[in-house]
Design brief:
Elements: H1 2-15, H2 18-57, H3 62-87, H4 92-109, H5 111-126, E1 134-137, E2 140-147, E3 151-155, E4 161-165, H6 166-171, E5 174-176, E6 182-184, E7 187-191, H7 197-210, E8 221-227, E9 232-237, E10 239-241, H8 245-262
Antiparallel strand pairs: 1-2, 1-5, 2-3, 3-4, 6-10, 7-9, 8-9
Length: 284
Amino acid sequence: MPETTLQDTADKLLHTDWIGLYVVPWGTRVLVALAILLIGRWLARRITRMTERAMERVQVDPMLVRFVGNLVYFALLVVVVLAALEQLGVNTTSALAVFGAAGLAVGLALQKSLSNFAAGSMLIFFRPFKAGDFVEVAGISGVVEEVRVFNTVLRTFDNREIIVPNGQIYEDKIVNYSARDTRRVDLVFGIGYEDDLHKAKALIREILAADERILSDPEPFVALVELGESSMDIAVRPWVRASDYGAVRSDLLERVKTAFDAHGIHIPYPTREVHLHPAPAEAD
């Protein structure tokens, strides 16, 4: 009796239409799932580009455009993946529960990355700086190139690219040198006590008046601010456009030094006197 049963079972397996019953349906599901992935990814990119172009047309900050574009693309990609899984017969509700549990575990393991993401969102929406601004963040100075999901890209004046985690930026102070249209140049020139103070101030004012980049309102400040140990210190504080700050500062240093040299005004520097005493003679 058992032999007959085994024989019948073998006959049934041999005569079963495996291709029609399993291969064709599952092959169709796999092909449809792949089509959903490919077409869905293409649509996600198209929708992302359309979103970015719409934001650009209303002159949204480029930094915000890229950030929102990344969020839209990843969100659409998640929807596409879930649709492909559902086509394969996967219970998406259970999958979402599994993903949620896995996401919680991953989130606990990647707290720093999530902190960087949250900080990036805050930087985008509160906008303490924008692309093209010269800033000092996390102890690093440079021009903002891009704010990404987890980090910010800076370009230094010697053309280095520095990537700073967003969490470090948001937790530390942010100095934006481009936030205002004008900046004040703060300089101090020390002259000797034997030099003519009024002549030195007059020379500085002439140099300031001859430079068209220096603003007349507010009026440049030139005054004696301190009587030091070896010099009389003159503070010079003109206002310039933010874009002219570096060039004006360097030019003023050179022109004032040249003018002082030409008119016999000295800039003191620290000196030290060394007295040598003969060693006492050794007693016999």
